[in-house]
Write a structure and sequence with these properties.
The protein is of the alpha+beta class. 31% of the residues lie in helices and 25% in strands.
Length: 518
């Protein structure tokens, strides 16, 4: 990263949001893994609690504001990114850059994460203020405010545990975990000079589009990027980074790094979890939710004055309900049609000869066009990858979108150890420009001759589209990614960061995949 920057040090605020998520994923995996691999978990818990007591305790007012819960019962954790500013020191007060609620419920269909905008307008003491200002006097004010906002007459909103973390822990955690494969939606570039920069001093960045291995500094640049983006786009980017990282942590040998991780980050964490019983209760829940999908819950907001956002009581009530009682989209099994056919045949009744089903109607928001895709392939992919990797692209396109040929790329993909480049890939980038999409919304087409990339771990169901079987990954009720495992590689279409393409539009793109040059 560039050494240029303001002379007054300041904490890189957007990155704290990711630090919370990645540490949550890592700690849950580490603790859950410890339960399954050792009978001495109580000794492990004692060691962890002893460390937390020395470095990470919170005040009594915070503990009193939390809701009591018995170990093993569903629990809600409040994770806060402490926007501690180095220039102001302790006198500058606490600022919650990010607030994330996590629900661990063994009887639920999903683990839910509710992100609350720090710039959300709330009423405090009869006046309007930002939500993160509730943290200025300490965690108790924020806990009470959130419980008030999200409680409904029929169901009080409980918060059982509190964890805060300073941004400093991010780089330490990433260094402990290593690198991750990440699906980068577009090219990220800023050198603080026009046309990519200008108008303010931001962190420099140069990360190309495409599925790739990101390590410490590059990961940091990506998750903290805030130039020409909204807070909601940054939040979505960091959430999806977590999803990618979480799947890869689960498959790693991270358990052996438990002590190293705790030693690296404990001084930057504050939490009420100070007893073996409390820690074991969270660990037990973590074990019981392993393998369940993670559902991202958001609060519907509208723009307000001074760059803030506003919401309504109904929107808050809906978010609370979705968080506490999540619904997981029903999968559309690739074999569902054949099952129905077999059922009819075995019943002994006569059935009419089935006609070949008609192709679904193209959504009104899409049209047939290959010009943008072919131009992108010619500009950024042709000559950059071997002919042994066939190139596929969709024959249809969203009407108000446009391909970005200058962001298209063909490239080599690093091995997990970073020593070799055993695979190749290509990425086509499409900017979704319609009015309701907002800034920073790009969907993409990815191809690689890597036959089992980690991205496959995120799919929860499958569908038959255009004669091919696609693995489906959801973001809430919206399709996040459709992945096709072909004999010669793996191909997928990825929704925008905020999942602005509808499920019908995503399916239409996947259904229209065609081979370049055929």
């Amino acid at each position: 990263m560039s050494s240029q920057g303001p002379t007054t040090p300041r904490a890189p605020r957007p990155g704290a949001r990711f630090a919370l998520r990645i540490l949550l994923a890592g700690l849950v995996v580490v603790l859950a893994g410890a339960v399954t691999v050792t009978a001495g978990i109580r000794n492990e818990a004692k060691d962890i609690v002893d460390t937390l007591k020395v470095r990470s305790n919170v005040d009594k007012a915070t503990v009193d504001a939390l809701t009591d819960v018995e170990p093993g019962q569903p629990q809600t954790l409040l994770l806060v990114g402490d926007d501690y500013r180095a220039a102001e020191g302790e006198a500058g007060g606490q600022r919650s850059d990010t607030m994330i609620l996590v629900r661990l419920d063994p009887d639920s269909k999903a683990t839910t994460m509710l992100s609350l905008p720090r710039d959300l307008q709330v009423t405090q003491g009869g006046s309007t203020a930002k939500l993160n200002s509730a943290y200025a006097g300490g965690p108790k004010g924020l806990i009470d405010t959130l419980k008030g906002l999200l409680s409904t007459p029929g169901e009080p909103f409980p918060i059982h545990h509190f964890v805060s973390i300073r941004f400093t822990a991010f780089s330490k955690a990433v260094n402990t975990f290593g690198c991750f494969y990440v699906d980068i939606d577009r090219k990220y570039y800023n050198d603080n000079n026009p046309p990519a920069g200008g108008g303010g001093r931001y962190a420099t960045i140069d990360v190309p589009a495409g599925y790739q291995r990101l390590c410490g500094e590059k990961s940091l640049e990506y998750v903290r990027f805030r130039h020409l983006d909204s807070d909601l786009v940054r939040e979505a980017r960091q959430t999806h980074f977590l999803a990618e990282a979480r799947a890869q942590i689960a498959d790693s040998t991270i358990i052996g790094k438990r002590d190293e991780l705790l030693e690296a980050i404990s001084e930057y964490i504050k939490t009420d979890i100070q007893t073996e019983k409390g820690l074991l209760g969270v660990v037990k829940l973590a074990v019981n939710v392993v393998g369940k999908p993670t559902k991202r819950v958001t609060v519907d907001v509208t723009d307000a004055a001074d760059g803030n956002v506003a919401t309504t009581p109904d929107a808050l009530a809906k978010a609370a309900k979705d968080f506490l009682h999540p619904k997981v989209p029903k999968s559309r099994s690739a074999s569902s049609s054949s099952s129905k056919s077999s059922s009819s045949s075995s019943s002994g009744t006569k059935t009419k000869k089935r006609k070949k089903p008609k192709a679904p109607k193209l959504p009104d928001t899409m049209f047939t066009s290959t010009e943008g895709a072919r131009e992108s392939i010619q500009t950024g992919v042709t000559g950059q990858i071997d002919a042994s990797l066939p190139i596929y692209y969709p024959k249809v396109q969203e009407k108000q979108s446009r391909y970005r040929p200058e962001m298209a790329t063909g490239y080599d993909i690093q091995s997990p150890g970073g020593q070799k480049f055993p695979w190749q890939g290509y990425r086509l980038v499409v900017n979704l420009g319609r009015g309701d999409a907002g800034p920073g919304q790009y969907y993409g087409i990815q191809g690689t001759n890597w036959k089992d990339p980690p991205v496959l771990e995120l799919a929860t169901s499958s569908e038959r589209l255009g004669g091919r079987t696609f693995q489906v990954e959801y973001d809430g009720s919206r399709i996040r990614r459709l992945v096709w495992k072909a004999p010669h590689g793996t191909y997928w279409v990825t929704n925008t960061l905020n999942s602005r393409l509808t499920n019908s539009e995503m399916r239409a793109l996947a259904r229209s995949f065609t081979r370049h040059g055929s």
